Amino acid sequence: MPYNRNGYESTGSSLTGSHCSNSDEDLSNPAVSYKFVNPETPGYVGFANLPNQVHRKSVKRGFEFTLMVVGESGLGKSTLINSLFLTDLYPERHIPDASEKIEQTVKIEASTVEIEERGVKLRLTVVDTPGFADSITSQNCIEPIIEYIDQQYERYLQDESGLNRRHILDNRVHCCFYFISPSGHGLRPLDVEFMKKLHHKVNIVPVIGKADMLTMTEVKKIKRKILDQVDEAGIQIYRMPDCDADEDEDFKEQNKQLKEAVPFAVVGSTQLLEVRGKKVRGRLYPWGVVEVENPEHCDFIKLRTMLITHMQDLQEVTHDLHYENFRADKLAKAGKATPGGGKDKLLADKEVELRKMQDMLAKMQAQIASQSK
Ligand SMILES: Nc1nc2c(ncn2[C@@H]2O[C@H](COP(=O)(O)OP(=O)(O)O)[C@@H](O)[C@H]2O)c(=O)[nH]1
Ligand SMILES: [Mg+2]
């Protein structure tokens, strides 16, 4: 059984109630008959379910996962990360002044936390990219990110070909949340450029930040627009795997809703507010509270559920596809550099593997081509 589904039976923290700031429209369409049910109990992230996804061996060691966040400053990236993992990865906030912004170059900051939940350890690394898109010209803000991702692959490749293969620290970027501005009416040229340059390197999950700035109709519109732009540009964002036919109906329904929610429109907050006698994380407005964990208010829970349920798939796609792309590329280049150097058995083996990968890629491309007809 690939995924744990127990959480889906629980009623969790599915809160009902109207969305104060957004209830002005769209009520004519009661839409979905199913509510999205938070598979977790409040106060838990939910990764304790991970042991069911992978070998028990990894339980002892803990899980390693690296999440990168990219997007312009002020879109709520740090707040969202803190809300997602119920931890304070970013205690201090530095606001750049105008002169800093002119020279701003993108920085790459990795912070690692070990979180333990119900006896399961997660070694989570969050790679932040402050300064992305902040300079007036936004020039050269993509390259440092590509470089970072490649460096991690390079390190893994070296470790993998080394002697001590049993304890390789996996710092490869397994997932990248790309933050899109709620006020941009869709993707900006830089957003498209970033995704086009990175989609074969990393799993991109597009996220609309500060979704409380938009009404429900606007959210629908911007999501549609983004998906159209992604299609037009031929960008391949991360595709959640399809359910097995024998999964139960609840799980299939949840998965369908997760897929439909892309790009996730999220709200983050680390502030606890009292709503209907319960403490919830939310943002207080004169007209009411936008609740972060209320699936009717935003896609925060869906994003977190996606991340947790598909954590293993994100790792596998990173390893089997993106890392293999990197490795194949590297081998191809090395092959060119030393013509006729086929004596090494290792190299010959790798070439066979490379051919296999290329076949697989060709097959996938053919499949994609036939789907988009
Ligand atoms: N309205 C709204 N404000 C937010 C949200 N998330 C964060 N903020 C606020 O936006 C500002 C920037 O947030 P921060 O997380 O530091 O953004 P970052 O620069 O992308 O890391 C802070 O004042 C946050 O309180 C959100 O979902 N909605
Ligand atoms: Mg930040």
- The tally of domains stands at 3
SS strand fraction: 5-15%
Bound molecules: guanosine-5'-diphosphate, magnesium ion
Count of discrete alpha- or pi-helical segments spanning 4 or more residues = 11
Low-confidence stretches: 1-32
Compact overview of the structure:
This protein has 373 residues and is α/β, with parallel strands linked by helices. It has eleven helices and nine strands. The chain has a six-stranded mixed sheet with strand order 2-3-1-4-5-6, sandwiched between helices. Strands 7-8-9 form a three-stranded antiparallel sheet, with no helix packed on it.
Structure description:
With 373 residues, the chain is of the alpha/beta class. The protein folds into three domains: 8-51, no CATH class; 62-325, Rossmann fold; 348-372. Helix content is 39%, strand content 15%. The protein contains eleven helices and nine strands. It has helices at residues 6-9, 56-61, 77-84, 98-103, 143-161, 189-198, 216-232, 249-260, 300-309, 311-337, 345-371; strands at 63-70, 109-117, 120-128, 175-180, 204-208, 264-265, 272-275, 278-285, 288-291. The strands form two sheets. A six-stranded mixed β-sheet has the order 2-3-1-4-5-6, sandwiched between helices. It has a three-stranded antiparallel β-sheet with strand order 7-8-9, with no helix packed on it. A hairpin with a 2-residue loop joins strand 8 (278-285) and strand 9. Helix 9 (300-309) crosses helix 10 and helix 10 (311-337) crosses helix 11. The longest helix has 27 residues, at 311-337. The radius of gyration is 22 Å and the shape is globular. Mean pLDDT is 81; it is low at 1-32. The chain binds guanosine-5'-diphosphate and magnesium ion. It is found in: Cell projection, Cilium membrane; Cleavage furrow; Cytoplasm, Cytoskeleton, Spindle; Midbody. Its main location: membrane. Belongs to the TRAFAC class TrmE-Era-EngA-EngB-Septin-like GTPase superfamily. Septin GTPase family. Residues 1-26 are annotated as: Disordered. Residues 7-21 have a biased composition (Polar residues).
